[in-house]
Amino acid sequence: MTDEIIIKFLLEESSEGENKQIETWLAADAKNQKYLQEMQLIWETSKSLGSLNLADENIAWENFKAKADERKASQAKQNSLYWLKIAASLVLISVVGWLGYQYFKAPEMITIQTAATIDTVILPDGSVVKLNKYSVLNYPDRFKGGKREISLSKGEAFFTITPDAEKPFTIQTNDIKIRVIGTSFNVKCGKNETEVIVATGNVKVTQKNEEINLKPGEKVTAYHQNVKLQKQPVEDQLYNYYFTKTFVANGTPLWRLVEVLNEAYGVTIVIKNDKLKNLQLTSTFKNESLDQILVVLQETFNLKISRENKLIIIN
Amino acid sequence: MEAEINLIHQINTGNQLVFEKLFKQYFKVLQNYAFTILKDLDVAEEMVQNVFLKIWEKQEKLPQDAVVASYLYKSVYHESLNWLRHEKVKASHQQHTLYSMKNESDSAEGRIKMNQLQEQLQKALNELPQQCRTIFQMSRFDELRYREIAEELGISVKTVENQMGKALRLMRLKLVEFLPVLIGLINSIFILK
């Protein structure tokens, strides 16, 4: 007898034929009766595994609706919070990224080149550079690490360096290096030499293995053929005319003034008579034209000044 | 089958009235089904809620070729087993003992034996495969006829017969050592009465 039929019999699912089979089977052996009894016990007892106190489906539906609404509300809240978090993270990442990029990227080099006019350049540390005509200055857009390095590859400039003992300032020209902390000085790159004149503070000039310290009123001319570096006193204040617009002659020989005027106005003045070369002049020309200056010279020393083509000749 | 496909379509496309009807139709039988696994009516309700929530919130779509009843029983079964896995047997066992105590029997000895029988039965029920258990559940607690079970689950009456046979056979095997004592006990109570 199969369990299937026995259970069908118990559940009154069995057919007439099956009922007869069961009856025969039960009558055949007491063991069979016991077997049926066991199955019946299991079936009856298993009923108690269920519950009779089931919730009402209408109340359950209300409970369900409340739960669904609650979840919907909290999910909407979480969603908006989620997007807010994402947005905030993105902003933070971009800001940190941008700052990091700015900080870690190599500084960009800036080149300032002047033509027929002078220029004033403010460096990232606040130092001021008066750049003379036809000069070239290179500097980074920010000074990174413990140093400030720039270069003057051509021409002339007057530097007023913002003091910063932690970050020494270095200017590279042709083959010399000028190291300062906080000071002002003039650098002039010539074809064959570089001239450094100190106005205030201390300046250290290095050429190959040679090094020299300059104080205010001192200058050095470093020749590219590498003659020994030598300090000299600064004889006059004419070097700074290009940004002061002032020519200060204080017992200055005429040849020297002529030299500066040639440079300043891009002309060629020639002193034909050697005796006139050492005539000493004490005077200040401020914001005056070349012609005005020449008239003063002419009248002071009783000179004859004539023009031949582009030359100006003093006799 | 036509009606079944239509029902699934209605639910998947978010027809609230159809959903509500489905919920109310199946809530009790599913709660009872979960109860036989969990032995806690509140948790059982929660499991049924969870299954319907997943459908409601479209986290889970009813498969096109599903039989809704079968799908629901299966989902509640897995939901309940997952819960048990998290909660461990301890809590549910306590619940079960408490529950069993409520059942009356005529003698103290008989009650203890009945409790043991129920406990063993519960164990055996919990070890039945999902489909076998669902069919047993529908027959035992929902008191459906074989034909009705077959229709709801979209299976043949023959399969229902086989699964019922399997369910009782497996349960009997679990209880085989208890049964002779119990039968004797019940008989003696019966005779005394």
Tell me the structural class of chain B: mainly alpha
Number of strands of chain B: 0
Largest sheet of chain B: none
| Oligomeric category | heterodimer
* Estimated share of beta-strand residues of chain A: 25-35%
Which whole number gives the mean pLDDT of chain A? 86
Structural features, described:
The complex is a heterodimer of chains A (315) and B (193). Chain A is of the alpha+beta class and 315 residues long. Helix content of chain A is 36%, strand content 32%. Chain A is built from seven helices and 18 strands. In chain A, strands 1, 2, 3, 4, 5, 6, 7, 8, 9, 10, 11, 12 and 13 form a 13-stranded mixed β-sheet that branches. Chain A has a three-stranded mixed β-sheet with strand order 15-18-17. In chain A, β10 and β11 form a beta hairpin. The longest helix of chain A has 48 residues. Chain B has 193 residues and is mainly α. Chain B has nine helices and no strands. In chain B, α5 crosses α8 and α6 packs across α8. The radius of gyration of chain B is 19 Å and the shape is elongated. The termini of chain B are far apart. Classes of the chains: A alpha+beta (315), B mainly alpha (193). At the A-B interface, α1, α3 and α4 of A face α2, α3, α5, α6 and α8 of B.
Summarize the structure.
The complex is a heterodimer of chains A (315) and B (193). By secondary structure, chain A is α+β, with helices and mostly antiparallel strands.
Topology:
The complex is a heterodimer of chains A (315) and B (193).
Chain A: H1 3-10, H2 16-28, H3 30-46, H4 57-104, E1 109-113, E2 119-122, E3 128-131, E4 136-140, E5 148-160, E6 169-173, E7 176-180, E8 184-189, E9 193-200, E10 203-207, E11 210-214, E12 218-223, E13 231-233, H5 241-244, E14 246-253, H6 254-265, E15 268-271, E16 280-286, H7 290-301, E17 305-308, E18 311-314
Parallel strand pairs in A: 5-6, 15-18
Antiparallel strand pairs in A: 1-4, 2-3, 3-5, 4-5, 5-8, 6-7, 7-10, 8-9, 9-12, 10-11, 12-13, 14-16, 17-18
Chain B: H1 2-12, H2 16-38, H3 41-56, H4 68-102, H5 108-126, H6 130-140, H7 146-153, H8 157-175, H9 179-192
Helix pairs in contact in B: 2-3, 2-4, 3-4, 4-5, 5-8, 5-9, 6-8, 7-8
